[in-house]
Amino acid sequence: MLGAAIQSGYLSQAPYNATLSKHFNSVTAEYEHKWDPVQRTPGVYDFTGADQIVEFAEARGMRVRGHALVWHGATPAWVNSLSEPELRIAMEDHIRTVAGRYRGRIFAWDVVNEAVADEGQANTGGLRNSVFLQRLGPGFIAEAFRLARSAAPEARLYYNDYSIEWANAKFERTYALVKGLVDDGVPIDGVGFQMHVEAQNYPPAAQIARNMQRIADLGLVVNISEMDVRIRLAPGDLMTRLEAQKRVYREIVGVCVAQPFCDGITFWGFTDRYSWIDGFFGPDDPLPFNESYGAKPAAYGVLDALLRR
Ligand code: G3I
Fold first, then answer.
1. pTM to 2 decimal places
2. Ligand 1 proximity of 235 Cβ (cutoff 6 Å)
3. Secondary structure (3-state) at 163
4. DSSP readout, 81-138?
5. What is the DSSP-derived secondary structure letter of residue 294?
6. Radius of gyration (Cα) for the chain, nearest Å?
7. For a designed S-S bond to 8, which of 20, 37, 49, 123 qualifies (C-beta 3.0 to 4.6 A apart)?
8. Quick one: pLDDT band at residue 119, thresholds 50, 70, 90?
9. 2-306 domain in CATH 3.20.20.80?
10. Under 8 Å between Cβ of 102 and 154
11. Is 161 in the pocket of ligand 1 (CB under 6 A)?
């Protein structure tokens, strides 16, 4: 399954719509399934953009990956000011309402996103010190998964995070969290490896494969959930950097293609015209299609990997 993160506002642009429809069979809402746009005001849900994305995908037989039910990075201000009982009720209402709305229509949910602490970050027991941890304790993660299973029993339920593709301490913290959930009988099905990397600094295929295998050995599946490959700081002229980018896409996509338990690869966008990278890291060309929707060497690297050539 090859996917892209999209925004409903771009679907009316013919080349955006055509490129997406031609080359991908899965979509993720880059923003519009998150708490912030969906429930900006307590108890008032707005699914306008989210529904457009799901209906677009259904009309084309595409899968939808829901992203993300619980994430500190896109919670409206009112959530952050709730007491423990208020937040527990709000989280349950949010998960039941959002996951329940798309019951049977969404292939997988990122139930909890980025709950594991980064290196050197203030953390509690290896977890990010988010409002969810502060108010509800580490049990919020298991609670979220149980609520999601109840609301959307057909969906695969994922834990999703970044910088866990390497043989590093953050992956070990993530593995410990996920193994604990599995051991406790929490309904989790998989782990998403976001894969935001650079052409001159990316995890070796062997490390990615080993981490994925360790998750699979827990009885879970994995996916590459948000891939993009920055080239701004890579050495060489533009053509050199684009060729390096192609090699990285081919190598990393090839890791998932080679793993029977890797259920998909999603790029975080698909055209350089719209990427979060530009605003976060500076102008870049991180995706397989250029600003005019032309296929870059990276797109051919993806194809080589999919065709195992
Ligand atoms: O669509 C609204 C627009 O109507 C409004 O006028 C404008 C100004 O407020 O905001 C627009 O929404 C923005 C949205 O992206 C769509 O462009 C939000 O402000 C902005 O916060 C949001 O950023 C997204 C970010 O997550 C936070 O939700 C990025 O697009 C998205 O790429 C990024 O994705 C995250 C993953 O969810 C988790 N992993 C890391 C990844 C990159 O940060």
1. 0.97
2. no
3. coil
4. T--HHHHHHHHHHHHHHHHHHTTTT-SEEEEEES-BPPTT--EETTEE--HHHHHH-T
5. P
6. 19
7. 49
8. confident
9. yes
10. no
11. no
Closest atom, ligand 1, to C-alpha of 226: 39
**φ, ψ dihedrals at 144, nearest 5°:** -60, -45
Handedness of CA 261, 220, 194, 25 (dihedral sign): positive
Distance 133 CA to ligand 1 centre (A): 23
Mean pLDDT (whole number) for 223-239: 98
Which is more confident, 122 or 176?
A: 176
Any idea where the domains of the chain sit in the sequence?
A: 2-306
Query: What angle, 0 to 180 degrees and rounded to 10, lies between the N-to-C axes of helices 84-101 and 140-151?
Result: 30
Q: Which pair of structure tokens corresponds to residue 232?
A: 């701004």
The residue among 267, 215, 306, 287 whose CA lies nearest residue 65 is 267
Question: Buried (b) or exposed (e) across 102-115, using 16+ Cβ within 10 A?
Answer: beebbbbbbbbbbb
Burial class, 304, CB count within 10 angstroms (exposed 0-12 / middle 13-18 / buried 19+)? middle
Q: Which atom of ligand 1 is nearest to the CA of 269?
A: 32
Task: Fill in the amino acid letter for 112.
Answer: V
Q: Using alpha carbons only, what angle is made at residue 109 by residues 48 and 250, rounded to the nearest 5 degrees? A: 105
- The position carrying tokens 């912030």 is 36
Active site residues: 114, 226
Looking at this protein, which amino acid is placed at residue 265? Answer: I
